[in-house]
Design a protein that fits this description.
The complex is a heterodimer.
Chain A (H helix, E strand, L loop, with lengths): L1 H28 L4 H6 L5 H11 L5 H13 L13 H36 L4 H15 L2 H18 L17 H35 L2 H8 L4 H26 L1 H11 L5 H10 L3 H29 L1 H5 L1
Chain B lengths: L27 H11 L1 H18 L1 H8 L36 H37 L1 H15 L3 H12 L3 H27 L3 H8 L4 H9 L4 H24 L11 H8 L7 H29 L10
Helix pairs in contact in B: 1-12, 2-4, 2-12, 3-4, 4-5, 4-7, 4-9, 4-10, 4-12, 5-7, 6-7, 7-10, 8-9, 10-11, 10-12, 11-12
The chains are: A mainly alpha, B mainly alpha.
Chain lengths: ~325, ~325
Amino acid sequence: MGRFVLTRVVLGLVVLWIMTLVVFLMFFVAPHNVASLIAGRQATPETVALVKHRLGLDQPVLTQYRHYMWRLVHGNLGYSFYNSSPVRSLIWARVPVTFSLALGGAVLWLLIGVSAGVLASTRPRTLADRAVTVAALFFYSMPSFLLGVVVFYIFFFRLHLAGLGWFPGNGYVGFTHNPLRWAQHLVLPWFTLALVTAATYARLTRSTMLDVLGEDYIRTARAKGVSERRVIFRHALRNALTPVVTQLGIDVGTLLGGVIVVENIFGLPGLGQMAVQSVLQQDLPVVIGTIILAATFIVVANILVDITYGFLDPRVRVH
Amino acid sequence: MSQLPAETDLPEQTQLGAVGLAIQARSPSRLAWARLRRDRVAIASALVIAAIVLVALLAPLIADLLGHHPDQTDQVHGLSPEGLPRGPSWAHPFGTDSLGRDVLIRVIYAARISMLAGVVASTTAVVVGVVVGLFAGYVGGVVDNFLSRMMDVILSFPFLLFGIALVSIVGPSLGVVIGVIAFFSWASVGRIVRGQTISLKEREYVEAARSIGASGVRIMFSEILPNLVAPVLVYLTLLIPSSIVFEATLSFLGLGVVPPTPTWGNMLAESLGFYQVAWWYVLFPAAALLTTTLAFNLLGDSVRDAFDPRGERLFRR
């Protein structure tokens, strides 16, 4: 197991290194003039040269790369072009929002998706099964921004018109500040994120559950008089969850991409909103910082999935 | 869904065990095609897609017919006295937008962008993925190692985030959107094809081809590739809707195709300022987008089912 974990971690680090290299080449070496962008439209050539010097862009590429990697290894992501504050603290300030959104969303989509899948698979070809299938197809085909707009319209705008201000349309309140208000601000984003994603889980759970329920050991369990509830949840679901875990790893890894849309629609000041803002302001260090963070997330999630796999299914470890 | 053929008038649908009838050999693709033709949902979604493609192709003609053009603003007749969009009427069946432009013709023109982005990006991704996957799987060794790591790296990229970052330096355009989708999607096709190739290249028929002196390229493309039609085709039909959604999402965020060129994504973004007064402005682009993705997902599901009737279909009916 130790060796297995080690190989995965080393591979993950290599992937991350390549990623930082690509990001560096794309943003610092590619011919586009960052310095004149920061200096402003009416800057004299001297000002541009000065900015270039301050950013170290006048140095040879290799020296720049050395500095970039050196800072990166020390956890320094550089400073925002826009307001000169360190990228790390900018990101850090946004993490709680995105984390709250992601955690609540993930719990919800697992609950909705897996239970819908179990419901459908234990009653195949009934109305419940069909309903789950149709709903899954519908939400699977639904772009998240579209669902966000619909949810916003119904649960914010229409309710407000009706005089029911249950769900705020934007903003964020810290959990430690006021847990109730925190949840209130996040309910709509949570559901938007969860419904789009839960569709995949419902389908996945349904099909693996159907496979597993046809296995001999399930028949054995039933034959020896185990209650149906126990058969479904203890015997079948546990085995059917392996692909769900893989999917969860992939989704949690790429979540930083998924929250971009939701945060922008519901005005949540998280990492996704910051990413879009900094792209629009051409604030490169912040953009790069977010990309590297997101990539790290994906790599770490992949490693965790592999390790979990190793625990769930000992055969994986051997190979 | 693996039902016996209902129609017996078709010569290829010879029933098994029927006495005195010659049993014809049918290739898996022909079998799949026969199943697909009998799948009502597949036919319906294919028809919807065909209709959308047709309307998109004929957009200039329809514009002449309607007498409106996608970028033609009409502040006098297109807006209400208060300067707001006008609701659906005979002159503007889908109403007008905030600049007095006809929403119907804009939705139609937007279909061209969506289809172009979806089909071109997905096809490129699939072609690149198939070629790389075949080489990695067939050649093996160092080549395989290198190509597989490359796919790993690409799959580890934060797709949407990277896309919008790229847009920030090269500027938003349809070309960039298509490029980004193709660049990040080929790796998953490549991975599937590589895995299949590795198992297929050990088959006897490949060995036979090799023993009569067929070249590597020939084996890859005319011995192994035909056996990969099913997974590749399924992947393609499911990749198209996700490419369409990706384009719409980028355009919605203002980072894809920029106005005045209409796309469903940027129309929705524009309409959000008016959702309280002009429901048609939001509804029609949204409905167009959802119908398209639904039709493609249903078709992709049917294609998968046609190739592998025993396999669990995603959306069983």
